[in-house]
């Protein structure tokens, strides 16, 4: 009888130890699953899919500092393309310049007002001149804030009988602002000025 009770007690202890190990194993597996699930969610949040030409392209989010050169240069490029890409149509000019003015402060508005007052845009319309711009390079200094930039570009004024090429150099500073639909990069161009804008070639069509 005592032997039987001893066997039962031993079996009970074995079951107890097994149960403890089983519970610990379950807790470990649950904790491991939670950690992996959290990591998977974090990885998914850092993954972005962009739809371009009917194809889903994968992109990865990154901090502001990691992309500052790319975003700042693209902001400068976008501003200049809006401000200087013009057609002999008053509505097109106002639309493009309007988009550009969202990306800069009053210094850009002052240049626009000066050109308008001098009849520059009226001359484009009356002479049927289209103006195109190609950004050659943007030099950016992020060691100071606001960030200094200098933009080198080539302008082309296209007439029905000829076209003129100009070298354009501008400079200014970039300040951080909130992102918006009108300003997706979150920068504002300040103290913008034209350093050089002179003809380099004249071609007959």
Strand content: 25-35%
CATH class descriptor name of the largest domain? Alpha Beta
- Sequence stretches where pLDDT stays below 50 over 5 or more residues: none
**What does the largest sheet look like?**
4 strands, antiparallel
Number of domains: 2
SS-derived structural category: alpha+beta
Strand arrangement, major sheet = 3-4-5-6
CATH architecture of the largest domain: Roll
InterPro entries: Conjug_transposon_TraK
Protein name: Conjugative transposon TraK protein
Organism: Albibacterium bauzanense
Written overview of the protein:
This is Conjugative transposon TraK protein. This protein has 205 residues and is α+β, with helices and mostly antiparallel strands. The chain has 2 domains: 2-47; 65-204, VirB8 protein (Nuclear Transport Factor 2, Chain: A, Roll), CATH 3.10.450. The chain contains 5 helices and 6 strands, in the order H-E-E-H-H-H-H-E-E-E-E. The protein has helices at residues 2-45, 68-84, 90-101, 106-117, 120-126, and strands at 47-52, 55-60, 130-141, 147-158, 162-176, 187-204. The strands form 2 sheets. Strands 3-4-5-6 form a 4-stranded antiparallel β-sheet, covered by helices on one side. Strand 1 and strand 2 form a beta hairpin. The longest helix is centred in the N-terminal third of the chain and has 44 residues, at 2-45. It is rod-shaped, with a radius of gyration of 32 Å.
Write the layout of secondary structure elements.
Elements: H1 2-45, E1 47-52, E2 55-60, H2 68-84, H3 90-101, H4 106-117, H5 120-126, E3 130-141, E4 147-158, E5 162-176, E6 187-204
Antiparallel strand pairs: 1-2, 3-4, 4-5, 5-6
